[in-house]
Every structure is written in structure tokens, then in C-alpha cells.
Design goal:
Length: 253
């Protein structure tokens, strides 16, 4: 029988018991995060490998968690779990430089056509501009939503800056680099503003997926849509957000 998080004591002599309880209690949460991320990955990606990476992230979170920071363990663990999964994906070249370059080219083509046409370009027009077929276009677009915004894209390049921001995001600790914190907050506010400009259905999917933490299948049940259609709407929403943020110089090339 697993201990509820509220029942766990963190006295020094009971550290190992607390660590194991935290891990056991949150194993299903790892699977939940993996399933959500896997919905945007090629079918060749092995889910079990990502779960194993996520569990490593969970173990690291349990080892470094400090309850005195007054933050829920699950909130803290989510960053570690996702980070470990993304590291695994990068090592397998699913989030390679070439993929990110293709994503930037897609976004640039969209902005170019938007300026030329004085309206939003459709998928066929963007694919034609890039000289690729629609299957390749949708593959690149789908990969956009695996990692929404990287630290590099908001101007945080050094390992020290990134570690500072991880500390700030996970436990609210005051960090030395105030400009980095300001940059994160600026991005957060910009994302909130741009979400309001999305089509209504995209706003709903974003809200249900990120705020209510429903799966694509659950969102489909709510909206009477297929899971694949919800995934497409989500990819479109993330793509449009990235384009608007790049257009407004919130994220960098």
C-alpha cells in the first residue's frame, strides 16, 4: 500500500522511506506525461523507452525535492520528468537541429505568405512555398508541439542561466539573474495574450490539455471529435502561437 503524499514525513532519519513513497505514488504520473508527449511523436518511438527515461527523472526529483520550498512534489517532478524525456528524444535525433531548422523554415514561410497575402496562409500554400508535400508538412508541424519553447529561443543560452531558471520555475527560488526571470515572465504574458487571438476551438483544446490536463482522447469525447482531429487542432494552435511569438520578437531564431 502506497503512502499518500500528505502522509509522508520528511524527517532526516526517514529520508529513504519518503523517497521511495514519492516514487511509488507518482509512477502512474510518469506514464501520463509520456502518453501526452507521445501523441506528437512518430509511431517508431518506443513508449517504454520514454517511460524508463521519465522514471529516471522522477527518481532525480525525489532525491532533490525539498518540502521546505512549499511547492507540491508533483509540480516539481513534472519538470524533471519532461526534461529527462526530452533529453532521451534529443539523443535519438527526434528533436535534432535539422528538425528544429525545418520548423523555423516552416514558420518563416508562413510569415512570408501572411505578409504577401494579407491573410493567414493555409497548409497547402505553406507546403508549396517550402516545396514539400503535405505529409512532410504535417510531420514537421506535429513536431512543433513536442517542445513548445526552448530556453535558447527566449535568450537563455548558458548552462548557468538555464539552471537558474529551472530553480525559479520549480521551487520559486530567488535567482541572481533578474533579467532572465523578467524574460520568462514576459514570455508567459505574451503567450496568454496570443492564446486569446486563437480560433475558439484551438483555445478550448489548449485550455483542456494544459490547464485541465485531459488527454487528447478525453478532449475528443468532450468536443465530440476524433482523437486525431484533436491532435491536429492542438498542433495548429501551437504552430500559430509560435508564429505570432516570433513575429512579435518574443522568441528568437
Amino acid at each position: 500500500m502506497f503512502l499518500a503524499e500528505s502522509q509522508i514525513e520528511y524527517k532526516k532519519g526517514e529520508y529513504h522511506l519518503s523517497r521511495n513513497a514519492l516514487i511509488n505514488e507518482n509512477l502512474s504520473y510518469v506514464k501520463s506525461i509520456v502518453c501526452r508527449m507521445a501523441g506528437h511523436l512518430p509511431s517508431c518511438v518506443e513508449i517504454d523507452d520514454l517511460i524508463n527515461s521519465g522514471i529516471i527523472g522522477l527518481i532525480e526529483a525525489a532525491e532533490h525535492y525539498n518540502p521546505d520550498k512549499n511547492i507540491k512534489f508533483r509540480t516539481y517532478a513534472a519538470f524533471r520528468i519532461r526534461g529527462a524525456i526530452l533529453t532521451e528524444l534529443r539523443s535519438r535525433d527526434f528533436l535534432s537541429r535539422s528538425t528544429r531548422q525545418k520548423r523555423r523554415e516552416l514558420e518563416a514561410a508562413y510569415l512570408k505568405l501572411e505578409q504577401e497575402l494579407c491573410r493567414e496562409a493555409n497548409d497547402e500554400e505553406v507546403a508549396e512555398e517550402l516545396g514539400i508535400d503535405l505529409d512532410e508538412f504535417y510531420k514537421i508541424k506535429k513536431m512543433t508541439s513536442v517542445s513548445f519553447i526552448s530556453f535558447d529561443e527566449i535568450g537563455l543560452y548558458s548552462n548557468e542561466q538555464k539552471k537558474d531558471m529551472m530553480s525559479f520555475l520549480t521551487d520559486g527560488r530567488n535567482v541572481y539573474n533578474a533579467s532572465s526571470v523578467a524574460r520568462i515572465k514576459e514570455t508567459e504574458e505574451a503567450v496568454a495574450r496570443e492564446i486569446e487571438h486563437l480560433p475558439e476551438k484551438e483555445q478550448i483544446v489548449i485550455s483542456l490539455y494544459y490547464w485541465d490536463e485531459l488527454t487528447m482522447k478525453e478532449i475528443g469525447n468532450v468536443l465530440s471529435l476524433t482523437e486525431s482531429r484533436v491532435s491536429q487542432i492542438h498542433s495548429n494552435a501551437i504552430f500559430h502561437l509560435r508564429v505570432r511569438l516570433r513575429k512579435n520578437n518574443i522568441i528568437e531564431d
